[in-house]
Automatic annotation (TrEMBL):
Gene Ontology BP, a term: RNA modification
Name by which UniProt lists this protein: Pentatricopeptide repeat-containing protein
Keyword Cell wall biogenesis/degradation: no
Organism: Escallonia rubra
Keywords assigned by UniProt, alphabetized: Repeat
Keyword Repeat recorded: yes
PPR-type repeats, residues: 8-42, 70-104, 202-236, 264-298
Entry-linked InterPro entries: PPR_At4g14850-like_plant, PPR_rpt, TPR-like_helical_dom_sf
GO molecular function, one term: RNA binding
Amino acid sequence: MDSLIPTWSRTWTAILTGYAKHGRIEDARRVFDAMPERNVVSWNAMVSGYVQNGDLANARWLFDAMPERNIGSWNSIITGYCHCCRMSEARELFDQMLERNSVSWLAMISGFVQAEGYGDAWDLFVRMCRSVVRPGQSIFVVTLSAITGLNRFGLIGVLRTMAIKSGYEEDVVVGTAILNAYTRNGSLGSAIEFFETMPEWNEYSFTTMIAAFSQCGRLDDAILWYKRVPVQSVSTKTAMVTAYAQNGRIDEAQRVFDKIAKPNVITWNSMVAGYSQNGMLKEAEDVFLRMPMRNSTSWAAMIAGLVQNGQNGQALELFAELHRSGMNPSHSALTSSLFACCKIGDVEKGRQIHSLTIKTGCQFNSYVGNGLISMYTKGKHMQDVSRVFDAMRARYDSR
């Protein structure tokens, strides 16, 4: 009979997990409470369910009540705090862990990058390299994002050395991330030199270089690198669409777009942004409405385009439609909408968006925070300005 318990328990846990995955967290809890026997796996599943559904209070209460924990228990609750940029709580739990694995370190480093605590992310990476856990591909990639945020060119070389020592000198994903770090730190010469030494390239290596030249206004060089691509993919063609659009050559962007048999959502977004950036709102809206599928970036591109072209009321109407769709708005959509409120002096609408930033865990983002400060300052609500500033600063406390 005892030998049957693990299978039976796994079945209950699978049902619990299924409910949580589909947002039916109360049903998941009823299954958990009804289980005649629970083990660390079922407890972890319930904690993870609360985390996935954004209920950190119940997740933490259950975590604290667990009769037994494993490393997955700790990783689950820490990841939840990191996703909400609550890095003080995440760091407190992380420091209490007696044992950590690569998932633990990745959660914390990624969390600090998301919260724009780039120095903390780098410090954790260095600390990890001194531990028994070896950095993997994902950790190298996210740490390069931290270096980009710090804008410390010299650290790219340090990380390259660490990657070589860890056996990742020929990994194309890590190599492309290094390439991206060079371009984002404004080191185009170093990026070109590094690109030529890479033992292997992928489509993202080429798109990184095309984008870098385009952003520097060197469209002719972007075109030359585009022609070097051995096999043109949707990604490289999309990079060229963006390059043409950024440099005001929207007709050529449209011609490249038309040659893509099956454009993905990123490609469609490039055309929406391209038309918007060139003041062609009608064309941008036509593309937006024709999209077979939209993501948060699609909405953000259209909302930003409306704000940039003075259509603030229409931008807020579109943001309301986004909210009604059930899709979480991106940082960009929130920021653009807050600036729309600022420009038309609608503080009440801005307060509603502020509440949404808190609900979605976006209030700590620097762009969103600046949007809130601008909106409240324009309305002369200085107490609200102070509260926003203090909230942004609080994420760094207790480290």
